[in-house]
Write a structure and sequence with these properties.
Blueprint (H helix, E strand, L loop, with lengths): L3 E4 L5 E3 L5 E9 L4 H11 L3 E2 L2 E12 L2 E9 L13 E6 L3 E5 L33 E5 L2 E10 L5 H10 L3 E2 L11 E11 L3 E10 L3 E6 L2 E6 L4 E11 L4 E12 L4 E2 L9
Parallel strand pairs: 11-18
Antiparallel strand pairs: 1-3, 2-3, 3-6, 4-5, 5-6, 7-10, 8-9, 10-13, 12-13, 14-15, 16-17
């Protein structure tokens, strides 16, 4: 008796979109041999359906010489959303970073009991008898990552060493639209995809350069994004309030990160 394969009425359950798929369902009659039933199904089910490629065929016994067959179709691998060598994927957030500051941008108001004057600390925050305690704030920081798919021959031992040596360095020239001193390279992580290429994610943070800052009576302060600014305070007499107060004596801008040529990362400048 010949094997007969017919498509079922409830066949063609499908999904559209980037992960499109469809299943064709069949009845297979005329054999108790699962391999023969599967071979008959593969001969009957089309190799492609609606631009999808047949990925598998399976059979399940239903009764004597009767099988239910399923042919599954998916998008071809080269049409799916898998990045190829040379492509890139980007993500970002503007969550910022924590910073402890001892100096405000401006003192909005000062209050004291009637008949007295509140001491003027020239913007110092949380002044006590012995100290300036300050406050924790959110520093404007732009965090982003770039995932690049680099050819295997590009990811040499020397290149991995370059990634290591540039980690924790600030751009010494314009990079990714940021002026020198604004972009900090936080490091990279990668893995090899088969034998062809590497998937490497690069992490960065950017903080803006500042010019002409004012702290108390100190003006004209310039600070690059990843330099550290701190203030030295001194006790002075506030004649209006008749009190000894702490006021900014000097401001210091410190270099705390080395500079580097981030174009050596090989992902553009």
């Amino acid at each position: 008796m010949p094997i007969t394969v017919t498509e079922k009425f409830e066949s063609r359950d499908s999904t559209t979109g980037s992960d499109a798929s469809v299943e064709l369902l069949y009845n297979v009659w005329g054999t108790d041999d699962d391999l023969a039933a599967k071979a008959a199904l593969e001969a009957e089910a089309p190799a492609t359906y609606d631009d999808l490629v047949r990925k598998s065929c399976s059979v399940e016994p239903v009764g004597p010489e009767l099988w239910e067959g399923t042919a599954r179709y998916r998008r071809p691998e080269n049409n799916r959303s898998i990045p190829e060598t040379g492509e890139s994927v980007f993500s970002f957030d503007t969550g910022g970073g924590a910073q402890h500051i001892t100096q405000s941008l401006a003192t909005v108001a000062r209050y004291a009991p009637a008949g007295t004057t509140a001491p003027d600390f020239k913007g110092a925050i949380g002044v006590t008898h012995d100290n300036v305690e300050g406050v924790d704030t959110t520093l404007p920081v732009y965090n982003w990552s770039e995932t690049h798919y680099l050819a295997d021959e590009a990811v040499t031992g020397a290149y991995k060493g370059t990634l290591f040596s540039l980690t924790g360095r600030v751009n010494d020239d314009t990079f990714k639209g940021f002026d020198a001193g604004e972009c900090l390279f936080l490091g990279a992580s990668g893995s090899k995809r088969g034998d062809d290429d590497w998937e490497i994610s690069f992490r960065f943070a950017a903080s803006p350069n500042k010019t002409n800052l004012t702290i108390g009576d100190i003006t004209g302060i310039n600070k690059k994004g990843w330099e550290y600014l701190w203030v030295r305070y001194v006790d002075e007499e506030d004649g209006s309030a008749k009190a000894l107060v702490k006021r900014p004596l000097a401001a210091y801008v410190e270099k705390v990160y080395e500079y580097g040529d981030l174009s050596e990362l090989g992902i553009g400048a």
